[in-house]
Amino acid sequence: MKNFVWLFVGLIVLVSIKSYPQSNHENNEITTTDSSSLLQKVKISGYIQPQFQVVESKGAATISGGDFEPNTNNRFILRRGRLKASFNSKNAEYVFQINATEEGIELDEVYIALSEPWLKTFTFTIGIFERPLGYEIGYSSSMLESPERSRVMKSLCPDEKDLGAMFTVQAPESSVLHFISFDVGLFNGTGPFHRDFDNRKDIIAHLYINQSAFSDLINYRCGISIESGGFDNQSKKHYVWNNGFQIEPNDTLAEAIRSFNGVDAECSVNWFLGKTQLRGEYIFGIQSGTLLSNTTPVVAPDVAACSRDFTGGYLLFLHNLPNNEIQLVAKYDWLDPNTKIAGNQIGFLPNSGAADISYTTLGFGLNYYCNKNLKFLAWYEIINNESTQVADFKSDIKDNLFTLRMQYKF
């Protein structure tokens, strides 16, 4: 990881270099090395998100920045610290991004995007970049109106990004078909930090339209997405649902299926009281994990895989006051990781447990935009889990969370 840091230092030094006169000893002429055209193509950007959080009970589990330590119910953390370098040429973009927090430095994005120069319609991207599953996954973390993405997206795509290749089809702005966009890609399915552990790949596709009406007073967007893939069941055993999870031996590395279908939509209206937006997604399908986790595994599980039918989604309300400095936000999201079992059966039917518990979250707060670089977020979320027969989840656990965040972006 130190190599990444030195690479960034070298890149920043390169951007800082000015053109110095150089002497030509053969003819005593002074020549100048003009690197301005090259440097104009390099962009350094980033943002930092320090925050303070308070949760209802010590050691509470949370998807907002990770679980609290056992004897802690408040903390300062550096949620994200991104530094990004990009180089743009006529038909190509090269991107390198790292993320730094109090827990260390890690790679975030590295990719090349090549655009064909003739029709100006097709783009090929390869490397580590965001999966094209729905809308929220590809929405920049610096633009998020709430502290985190929804619980269902964190279950399906815990790191948002993956290693793979993708084709994008979108007509140029001069075309009447520019409002239609289509992404289709092939990915390892193991996220950005781990190499693939089998020969299976995930296919992800997203088709959407983006339109405006009434002189841009109304804007709307809607899309559909699918993902089809899975991973080899390393233990050659698989849990199948039959009024509880039952083990099913298999002599081959049977595929643990991951199959998702989603719809997403957004509508915004500009009026005399400001700008109002509604945004939502709904996703359902089959997710494979283990008995203890409904999250997509990034390394080969050393236990039998477990497949579940799931549903999830979110609905987001946004309103910007006329001066655009204050934005009011409310968000409702839910995840039912196992639609075939009711709450009062979890912990009673064979091999059911905490990974089968459904959650709903109601969050609300506001963003204060001091300027184009600096914003503050105050957010409170009420998190509810269904009551079960699992020892620690016989009633709703106390895990409501308050987050106060500052973000500086450059």
Features:
410 residues; 2 domains; 3 helices; Porin; 16-stranded antiparallel β-barrel
Describe the fold and architecture.
The structure is a single chain. The protein is mostly beta strands and about 400 residues long. It has 2 domains: about 1-40, no CATH class; about 40-410, Porin (Beta Barrel). The chain is built from 3 helices and 20 strands. The chain has helices at about 1-15, 35-40, 150-155; strands spanning about 20-25, 30, 40-55, 75-90, 90-100, 105-115, 120-130, 160-170, 180-185, 200-215, 220-230, 235-240, 245-250, 255-270, 275-290, 305-320, 325-335, 360-370, 375-385, 400-410. The strands form 2 sheets. It has a 16-stranded antiparallel barrel with strand order 3-4-5-6-7-8-9-10-11-14-15-16-17-18-19-20. Strands 1-2 form a two-stranded antiparallel ribbon. β16 and β17 form a beta hairpin. The protein is globular. The model is unreliable at about 5-10 and about 10-35 (pLDDT under 50).
How confident overall, as mean pLDDT?
90
The Cα radius of gyration reads 24 Å
**Biggest sheet, open or closed, and with what strands and sense?**
16 strands, antiparallel, barrel
Q: Which CATH first-tier class of the largest domain would you pick?
A: Mainly Beta
Instruction: Give the low-confidence spans.
Output: 4-9, 11-33
CATH fold descriptor of the largest domain: Porin
N-to-C order of helices and strands: HEEHEEEEEHEEEEEEEEEEEEE
Number of domains: 2
Would you report the number of β strands?
20
Q: Can you tell me the CATH architecture of the largest domain?
A: Beta Barrel
Order of strands across the main sheet: 3-4-5-6-7-8-9-10-11-14-15-16-17-18-19-20
The computed structural class is mainly beta
What's the total helix number? Answer: 3
Residue share in helix: under 10%
Specify the overall morphology.
globular
Classify the beta-strand content into a percent band: over 45%
CATH homologous superfamily heading of the largest domain:
Porin
How far is the N terminus from the C terminus? 23 Å
